[in-house]
From TrEMBL:
UniProt protein name: Ig-like domain-containing protein
Length: 817
């Protein structure tokens, strides 16, 4: 079904309540929701960690382990990743902006684990962590007494790292994080969406649930494009205080799309707040009637159609006194009948009090709200106070009164001041006044009283009308309002998260508008660039017709050189590396502003202008493929090449073809290394008989380069190293299996090679360099005709020796604690 026109939409709402048991239903355009969430994420970004540093060693395959040390995750960003009410998904995305990642494998024929890859995380190569949430299986959201709006994360469907080219390994690493997450106490298993201010407002939510809805499949069973790409809406069902939760349809087709079409050249609706029929009538019209002054308490009644639609609210009981109910003649009226004289000095209508039960009501008719006072064929009595010479001869006559007073009201949207965005009930039409009063005619000697009927009817009409106008004044003076926009804070933190444009009350109250026009009027690009210290980054906006001014600021609570940006051209120049004073990275905010409209970007500045991932990879010969990732501080594509003497090859990834089985990270500079066929070289005792070191060089436009080491063993090692502390660094001993058990090969019986490293190797004694992120590759080949060799990646001082040995024995002793 296509989107509904506004008329079709209002007709759909007009027959019965459509909030599915919720007190309110919030509907937002999904793309604009994600854009606003990104802007709020940037606006409130700080250096505080949302999750603690993550450390774990996990078996990811048989005889294969991964070790994650001090993984620092930046603040999570929420987004809604699909449009499907039956299978709604949200995602928390975080970047790993710091930490060390090491993988280990136990080669066949050896007894200990050996390192197969090393990577150091930084903002330039930051891999991502995704925590996917199956919304229909989550426990929904709650609001604490302090107003914290919390989304339950305990039912996260999948936790996926993008650390490896293997999807299976990434999945298992995600499971490790999931297990860690589930071990936390409940207070940490939530994500704070927002904060909502508690108060006396009648629309106080206490719980909610979230879904997404497809525009293409809404109201029909048609097949649409992929639901993570298509247009759709985010739905939030809100249970208000004292209410239980509602429900959602099973499928997209079971409900029309609730953001209707607009006219030509109009901004599409991107926000809709549906207040349930019962809720909005009770908190506005019902409370308005309760404000009327009465001598007997007003009890309300809510007329309902067979479909359950509440059509208004009426006073079931209640009693009031009109302002004027009797009239004293200024001079007595005297008349004669024969010798007898009569004098009239007062008349009044009885009873003076008016039972308004069933007479006064608010009625919703064709999307208009009417305050009505209707009473037909009401019998009252008119008493004439008459005296003659014998005393009181007063007379009372019945009177039939028909009253119909009506005033039309409508909700208007307040557009300025502290109540901006609220709905206020205002009179929009003239008073309709229909009144008749028929008094039974007097006969005989009292027939003269009939001449007062017209005046009495006019006086009673005036008294009734004055009373009704007093009602109108009370309701107008009370400024009956509905603060529906308050509910937007369930998802958004911005004070003006949306701008309402139209309000209708066909049954449920629908408040249609635009999501954050001040924040989303234009979009800044790029949104989250990573650049090098001293680098240059141009910014632009889309659409480009806005006349914006650019500015740059530090994060809240931070100081330091923030760089400079051209106020008119958006050209940003990052601060020099010399200003970082021991920091390796810094983040700043870029703002583009046009009057009240603005957009922001979050810039990560790194001291280094180039980074690669991983730093080391042990590769299997014979055409095996490995994903190499690079980051450039200038945002340019890197130049990848094999170093001289290389035997492998490089190419760009083909994610839809040759590399469809690999996990290719999106939005990053990626190259595929293809290992060579087996090709040993060198003579007896030469390490080249055992292995080969390929090196891939990534170079940026500034000429700076980083190297990735790819170690290609030509055969599985048939010996292994034990490592222990030594006064000069570490001591390596070479071991082989023998019939009697493990046998050590004397160090003098082997050729020792420092394949890679900046430390010093003196036979089997290695002295590491002082660089904290260095590592070494050491190999030894026994001096015999038959090739017996071992190699080891020594991550010293990248990892402490004690930790390294614990990891190497992980396959024997279980997960290192």
């Amino acid at each position: 079904m296509a989107k509904l026109t506004l008329t079709q939409y209002l007709n759909y709402l007009g027959t019965e309540t459509r909030t599915m048991g919720w007190g309110a239903l919030l509907i937002y355009d999904r793309a604009k929701t994600n854009a606003l969430l990104a802007q709020e994420y940037i606006e409130r970004f700080d250096k505080n960690q949302y999750f603690p540093p993550f450390n774990d060693s996990e078996e990811t395959d048989q005889n294969a382990w991964s070790d994650m040390q001090d993984f620092i995750l930046d603040r999570p960003r929420l987004s809604f990743t699909n449009s499907n009410i039956a299978s709604s998904r949200a995602r928390l995305s975080m970047k790993v902006v710091g930490g060390k990642y090491v993988t280990l494998v136990k080669p066949i024929g050896t007894r200990l684990m050996d390192i197969t890859s090393i990577a150091l995380m930084d903002p330039l190569n930051a891999p991502s962590l995704h925590m996917d949430i199956r919304l229909e299986e989550s426990n929904g959201g709650t609001i604490t007494d302090e107003g914290r709006v919390l989304l339950d994360l305990s039912r996260g469907e999948s936790y996926t790292f993008h650390l490896s080219s293997s999807e299976d390994r990434n999945r298992k690493l995600g499971l490790a994080l999931e297990q860690e997450f589930r071990s936390w106490d409940d207070s940490r298993k939530v994500f704070e969406l927002s904060r909502i201010v508690a108060g006396d407002d009648d629309l106080q939510p206490h719980s909610f649930a979230v879904r997404t809805h497809s525009a293409a499949r809404a109201g029909s069973a048609s097949v649409s494009q992929e639901d993570d790409q298509e247009e759709g809406a985010v739905l939030i069902g809100v249970a208000l205080k004292g209410m239980s939760n509602g429900m959602f349809p099973i499928n997209d087709k079971d409900m029309p799309y609730l953001l209707p079409l607009v006219g030509p050249n109009e901004e599409p609706y991107s926000m809709n707040i549906l207040l349930s029929n019962q809720q909005w009538i009770a908190i506005s019209l019902g409370q308005a009637l309760q404000r009327l002054e009465a001598s007997r308490a007003i009890v309300l009644n809510y007329p309902t159609t067979p479909t359950g639609k509440i059509t208004g609210v009426a006073a079931r009981t209640g009693e009031i006194m009109p302002v004027t109910f009797c009239y004293n003649l200024p001079t007595e009226f005297v008349w004669y009948r024969g010798p007898r004289a009569y004098s009239l000095y007062r008349y009044e209508v009885l009873p003076a009090s008016i039972d308004i039960g069933g007479a006064i009501e608010f009625k919703v008719i064709d999307d208009a709200i009417h305050l009505m006072w209707q009473s037909s064929n009401t019998v009252r009595h008119v008493k004439f106070y008459v005296e003659d010479r014998n005393g009181d001869v007063s007379k009372t006559y019945p009177a039939t009164v028909d009253t119909h007073f009506s005033v039309k009201y409508a909700f208007v949207i307040l557009t300025e001041g502290p109540d901006k965005g609220k709905l206020r009930l205002e009179q929009v039409g003239e008073l309709e006044d229909h009144f008749t009063m028929a008094i039974e005619r007097a006969t005989g000697e009292f027939d003269v009283l009939n001449q007062f009927h017209r005046g009495i009817a006019a006086a009673w009409h005036s008294a009734m009308l004055e009373t009704f106008n007093r009602f109108v004044a009370v309701i107008t003076g009370a400024e009956v309002t509905i603060n529906a926009m308050h509910l937007n804070h369930l998802l958004f933190r911005s004070q003006q998260a949306a701008e309402p444009r139209s309000v209708y009350t066909p049954c449920d109250l629908t408040l249609l508008g635009t999501l954050a026009p001040d924040r989303l009027h234009f979009a800044i690009s790029p949104l989250e660039p990573v650049i090098a210290a001293g680098g240059v980054q141009p910014f632009s906006i889309t659409p480009s017709d806005a006349q914006v001014k650019w500015s740059v600021d530090n994060l809240p609570g931070e100081t330091g050189d923030k760089g400079a940006i051209g106020e008119d051209d958006g050209l940003y120049i990052a601060p020099p590396a010399s200003s970082f004073e021991g920091e390796t990275s810094r983040r700043i905010l870029i703002t583009a502003r046009d009057g009240d409209k603005f957009s922001q970007a979050l810039v990560s500045i790194t001291v280094s202008d180039i980074s690669v991932y991983p730093h080391l990879q042990v590769a299997q010969f014979g055409g095996a493929r490995y994903v190499l990732v690079g980051g450039d501080g200038n945002g340019q594509e890197l130049d990848w090449e094999m170093a001289p003497g290389g035997k492998g090859t490089l190419r760009r990834p083909d994610p839809e073809g040759l590399d469809s089985d690999l996990d290719i990270p999106e939005g990053q500079d990626v190259c595929i290394y293809v290992s060579p066929d087996r090709d040993p070289s060198g003579g007896k005792g030469d390490v080249k008989q055992a292995l080969h070191l390929d090196q891939v060089v990534a170079r940026n436009v500034s000429g700076n380069a980083r190297t990735i080491d790819l170690l290609v063993p030509w055969s599985n090692p048939n010996a292994w190293f034990e490592v222990e502390a030594h006064p000069e660094g570490v001591k390596l001993s070479m071991w082989v299996d023998a019939f009697e058990g493990a046998e050590e090969i004397p160090p003098e019986d082997a050729f020792w090679y420092l394949v890679k490293g900046s430390g010093q190797l003196n036979q089997n004694i290695y002295t590491p360099s002082e660089s904290s992120n260095d590592y070494a590759i050491i190999a030894a080949v026994e001096d015999y005709r038959r090739l017996t060799y071992a190699y080891i990646v020594l991550p010293l001082p990248f990892i402490a020796l004690r930790k390294f040995n614990a990891l190497r024995h992980a396959g024997d002793s279980g997960k290192d604690k």
